Structures are given as structure tokens and as C-alpha cells.
């Protein structure tokens, strides 16, 4: 039975309440000051792969959109990450964080030390957006509904617990608090407008579940590799690699 607009929005929000990665043990460690410097560095390196893939995901989406209005509305997402003449963009802001935690930004940008599981999860998301229906692609982006809280908690936790944290190093998260609301409002309205049958509502809900699984699986891999000793997979970043002082030397 097709849900009302209000019922369906509540269903989407419940998915976040149950499945969003703010509940993952690694984030509790990170925000609570329980991560070692190397665990923070591993998170920065692997999360960068997600950050740098987002504009490619959005470009893949836009390549399939015939509506100029939808392309125009979506285009700002690429600019938010890649930057413009007046905005350095989220990718550069993330590399500022990498530098602040002692990593060589060029090493992080190379994605050389990213874990295989991270690549598999993020690449699966890019393929999902490229290959699935436009409704499913937009619905998968609705994890942004739940992002402002995790960004606010992260800013507060990092500032409280880590010496590297300041306005410059945390500018990515501070900026997303301003950028994300417009994306959330547009994406949610688009999904609610277009998911007008039970089948479409189920497709959209399952797409959002898929995206929460992508985010959760990245943290599962990170926790397994860098919190549990002796679990770093072959080819992934090893503590001491890619450090900024090594480049200077």
C-alpha cells in the first residue's frame, strides 16, 4: 500500500535512526578521543577515497539526466567538492585535515594506502548511482539527512580531544554544516515527489539502506584493520608511511 508523503518521509528517517554510521563503534572511539594518532590517520586516508569519489558519482548521475533543471540543481554538489574560483572545495579541505594530522597530502591524494574494502564499498556506490534508476540514485544520497548531527558531534569531539583540531583542520565539517541543508531539502523533496507508488517507495527506501551499508562497511573495515592489532590488509597504509615529515626529509 502506497504510504502518504508524511508516512514515507518518516520511513526514510527511521532508516537513518536505525542504520546510519554515527552508531558505529569506530565513530564513538573517534569522537570520544579514544583513537590513537595512527587510527585517526587511517580514517583520514580511507575517508578521503570516499570524498574524492563523490563528485565522480555526481558527474555520473548528471550524465544520465535529461532535465536541465535537475542538472542545474545537482551541479552545485560537484562544485562543493571540487571547488570553484572562490571556494577551495571539500576535497582540498579534507587534505588540510590530512596535513594537520601529520600526513603528506600528496600521499593521501594518491589513494595509494586505501584499504581494498574501502575501494570496493565506494566503487560500488559510484556504480549504483551510474546504473540504477534516477530515483534510486537520488534516494541513496539522502544519508545527508543525518549528516549534520554527525558533523556537529565530530567537530565538538575532535576539538575537545585532539591537539590537531582547530578551525582550519576542521573546515571540511564546518563547511558541510552550511552546504548540506540545501542538498538535503532538494533531494528529499525530489524523492517524495517521484516515489508515488509502493514499488517506487520500496525502491527508494532500499537505495537508502544500500547507502547506509556502504558507509557502515567502510568503518567495519577500518575498525578491523586498525583497532584490532595485526589486521591491516596487504597494500593498505602502514603507520609511518606517507608522513609529512618524511616528505620534508
From TrEMBL:
GO terms for molecular function: pyrroloquinoline-quinone synthase activity. Transmembrane segments: none annotated. GO terms for biological process: pyrroloquinoline quinone biosynthetic process. It comes from the Bacteria. InterPro entries: Haem_Oase-like_multi-hlx (IPR016084), PqqC (IPR011845), PqqC-like (IPR039068), Thiaminase-2/PQQC (IPR004305). It is an enzyme of class 1 (oxidoreductase). Keywords: Oxidoreductase, PQQ biosynthesis. Pathway: Cofactor biosynthesis; pyrroloquinoline quinone biosynthesis. It catalyses: 6-(2-amino-2-carboxyethyl)-7,8-dioxo-1,2,3,4,7,8-hexahydroquinoline-2,4-dicarboxylate + 3 O2 = pyrroloquinoline quinone + 2 H2O2 + 2 H2O + H(+). Its EC number is 1.3.3.11. It holds the Pfam family TENA_THI-4. Residues 10-220 form the Thiaminase-2/PQQC domain. PANTHER family: 4-AMINOBENZOATE SYNTHASE, PQQC-LIKE PROTEIN. Belongs to the PqqC family. Ring cyclization and eight-electron oxidation of 3a-(2-amino-2-carboxyethyl)-4,5-dioxo-4,5,6,7,8,9-hexahydroquinoline-7,9-dicarboxylic-acid to PQQ. This is Pyrroloquinoline-quinone synthase. It comes from Thalassococcus halodurans.
